[in-house]
């Protein structure tokens, strides 16, 4: 099986191998005046990432992840019932710090911001065939939602994700299942990610990025913004908790939740 690399297009977000120039170039913008991002130093990493088959924890029904990047912070709230398999995969990747010291390797203005290639070549190799099954699309690909990238082949979602920078509801019918949303202030941070390389890095050079990791990116595409860390921070607050009344007798065990989740296709 050849290496898959996700290339999100305006008509279909597909993995390219390695650089089928099928996507139109992003709209031209004035040159950025920002300085180059400092490349992440070669980090230590969780070696559990080399065994994807063992990372199968079930995610909480709702949880949050805070990303600290070279542009600032943003928080994603995940709702597992939207796409359970996607929520579980994302949870395990974050829990084991897969995204730490990696890059937003493709940002198409007014379309998507894509990430999910590790800065560690050995980790990319380990996850090459670790895909998850397709599942029903229950939410629309609206601005600020996060979705796993996929190919036209069935069950091809791996580690690459994109955040919608506008309402991309045409993707709903193509099987792209949102499973979370970026907070209102945070989406403005995502929209600031460096985008002047266009598709030159994000589409045309994915194979080299995958094989070369951070060392290659720091040399060839140094201005791509860095995810310093992605950290689980717990579930969002819902309703204020009421003080527990002192029970006269021992409380009964809580009933198991009965919420149902859509079955994967």
Description:
This protein is an alpha+beta fold and 265 residues long. It has a domain at 64-234: Cyclophilin-like (Cyclophilin), CATH 2.40.100. Helices cover 16% and strands 20% of the residues. It has five helices and ten strands, in the order ββββαββαβββαααβ. The chain has helices at residues 84-95, 121-126, 186-190, 199-202, 206-220; strands spanning 6-7, 14-15, 62-69, 72-79, 102-108, 112-115, 145-148, 161-164, 178-182, 226-234. A hairpin with a 6-residue loop joins strand 1 (6-7) and strand 2. The protein starts with 5 loop residues before the first strand and ends in a 31-residue tail after the last strand. Mean pLDDT is 81; it is low at 1-36 and 236-265.
Write a brief caption for the model.
The chain is α+β, with helices and mostly antiparallel strands. The protein is 16% helix and 20% strand.
Extract low-pLDDT stretches.
1-36, 236-265
CATH superfamily of the domain at 64-234: Cyclophilin-like
The level of helicity is: 10-25%
Radius of gyration: 19 Å
How many strands appear in the DSSP assignment? 10
Named CATH topology of the domain at 64-234: Cyclophilin
What class do helices, strands and sheet pairing give?
alpha+beta
How would you describe this structure in keywords?
16% helix; 265 residues; Cyclophilin; disordered N terminus; alpha+beta
Write the layout of secondary structure elements.
Layout: E1 6-7, E2 14-15, E3 62-69, E4 72-79, H1 84-95, E5 102-108, E6 112-115, H2 121-126, E7 145-148, E8 161-164, E9 178-182, H3 186-190, H4 199-202, H5 206-220, E10 226-234
Antiparallel strand pairs: 1-2, 3-4, 3-10, 4-9, 5-6, 5-10, 6-8, 7-8, 7-9
């Amino acid at each position: 099986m050849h290496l898959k690399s996700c290339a999100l297009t305006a008509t279909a977000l597909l993995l390219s191998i390695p650089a089928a120039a099928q996507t139109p170039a992003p709209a031209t913008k004035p040159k950025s005046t920002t300085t180059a991002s400092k490349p992440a130093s070669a980090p230590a990493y969780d070696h559990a990432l080399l065994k994807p088959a063992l990372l199968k924890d079930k995610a909480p029904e709702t949880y949050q992840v805070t990303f600290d990047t070279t542009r600032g912070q943003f928080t994603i709230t995940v709702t597992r019932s939207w796409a359970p398999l996607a929520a579980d995969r994302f949870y395990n990747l974050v829990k084991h710090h897969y995204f730490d010291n990696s890059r937003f390797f493709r940002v198409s203005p007014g379309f998507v911001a894509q990430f999910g290639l590790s800065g560690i070549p050995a980790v990319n190799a380990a996850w090459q065939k670790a895909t998850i099954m397709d599942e029903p699309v229950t939410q629309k690909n609206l601005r600020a939602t996060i979705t796993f990238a996929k190919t036209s082949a069935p069950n091809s979602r791996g580690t690459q994700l994109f955040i919608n920078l506008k309402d991309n509801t045409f993707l709903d019918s193509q099987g792209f299942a949102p499973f979370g949303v970026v907070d209102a202030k945070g989406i403005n941070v995502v929209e600031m990610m460096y985008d002047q390389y266009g598709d030159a890095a994000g589409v045309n050079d994915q194979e080299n990025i995958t094989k070369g990791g951070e060392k290659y990116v720091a040399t060839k595409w140094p201005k791509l913004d860095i995810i310093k860390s992605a950290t689980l921070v717990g579930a969002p607050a819902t309703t204020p908790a009421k003080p527990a009344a002192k029970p006269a007798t021992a409380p009964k065990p809580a009933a198991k939740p009965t919420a149902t989740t859509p079955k994967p296709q």
